[in-house]
Amino acid sequence: MLKVVPSEEVAEALSAGRPVVALESTIISHGLPQPRNLEVALELEEIVRAAGAVPATIAVLDGVPRAGLDREGLERIATEPGLRKLGFRDLSPAAALKVSGATTVSGTSFLAARAGIRVFATGGLGGVHRGWTTVQDESADLDTLSRTRITIVCAGVKSILDVPATLQRLETRQVTVVGYRTDEFPGFYLNTSGEPVDWRIETAAEAAEIMRAQDLLGGPETALIVANPVPVADQLNPALHDRVLAEALRAADERGIAGQAITPFLLEYLVNGTDGASLEANLAAVRGNARLAGEIAASWSRED
Residues 3, 8, 12, 24: which is the catalytic one? Predict the structure, then answer.
């Protein structure tokens, strides 16, 4: 079996039963400009530490899956040209061909769970794309979360997606969704999508209790999604968001952009059309998710 190689710090923490939080690496390689990407990577790790957990940034370096990167590894992810973006389906060829890459939500979730890490912090999930009935474009994140026992703290799904359809798909795949101090599913850049969630929790300890109940109940090895909204003060202006997103969707349609190209196009359009405000809202969400994930991991470790 191909092993996920932990850093010394992560290996020691896992062996001792101390809390560990997985962090994805695509935000470093593909989500932010240099040199800010490295600064944010280091900042997120410090936020996890301040919350009482050990950070484990996940990536594949020279074909080797890694759980926890040293400074050199983070710098490679932040600066190496042509770095691949690796979802779950890409992990085998990357390992066989000794390729380096940053992991998406699906790739990170799988490798984190394989390494024995239960909690994962990210920005937003992938989901069902708009116009699914025509193009049937759905993120691999949903399938991976339907068969991976991990707790993922996120700010909902990217607002460029079909949020109601994504929530319905998660329900069908038996993935539990809880709102952290909210009755509505977050809107990624926005505090709320307007869509209700069935379950609400108030504390990190309650999330840890649900994790324990998952294990006691048994059944399919599905994920737990803890939906943590970006604070209203840090969200993107809703009117600006709606206007620029509508423009982006029209531009994509006019240019015939679809498939894997649509998400990066729309996200870049939002960054440019909001003068970087969408990026700042994204980062505010990721910071809050890293903090909450650290707290959940600490509570889980104490209970476990």
Answer: 24
